[in-house]
Write a structure and sequence with these properties.
This protein has about 140 residues and is mostly beta strands. The chain is built from 1 helix and 8 strands; from the N terminus they run ββββαββββ. The radius of gyration is 20 Å and the shape is globular.
């Protein structure tokens, strides 16, 4: 009988994110996902509802500690001029106690919204950065 081995569970503490090749060490959480877009399809004399896949959409978010004005620096001036920058993001988690690494490159990233200023008394600052993307590649996968 196989035994469960908790050491193989990936610890998110070892996750890292690079935006346009620059390591953002202040990232607290990161998520990127693909949603399959589909449409309901029905046929005469068949009570079932089927799905027809029409494509996919990529979206995600990251939460960062408020140490820099990274996002504002990349977005604020351009957005006011009607320009919407595109980025590449690489996310990786490689727990030395687990069995390998998972790494993904996300391309054609657009930031959906960004905070101009936010603070709360007696609270450390952070900001959530939602994004969308139209291309990705799995570079490393866990066994």
């Amino acid at each position: 009988m196989a035994r469960n081995d908790s050491r193989k569970i990936v610890n998110g503490t070892y996750g890292r994110v690079w935006v346009d090749g620059e390591l953002w060490a202040e990232v607290d959480s990161f998520e990127a996902k693909v949603t399959i877009n589909s449409e309901d399809v029905t046929f005469a004399n068949d009570p079932a509802t089927y799905q027809k896949e029409l494509g996919w959409a990529g979206e995600g978010s990251m939460t960062i500690k408020k140490i820099h004005s990274r996002v504002q620096r990349k977005m604020a001036a351009d957005v006011k001029q009607g320009k919407y920058p595109r980025f590449s993001i690489v996310g990786k988690v490689e727990d030395p106690g687990a069995s390998g690494a998972e790494r993904v490159a996300i391309h054609d990233v657009t930031i959906s919204e960004f905070m101009l200023l936010k603070f709360e008394l007696k609270t450390t600052g952070s900001e959530e950065i939602p994004f969308k993307f139209s291309d990705y590649e799995m570079i490393d996968m866990l066994p």
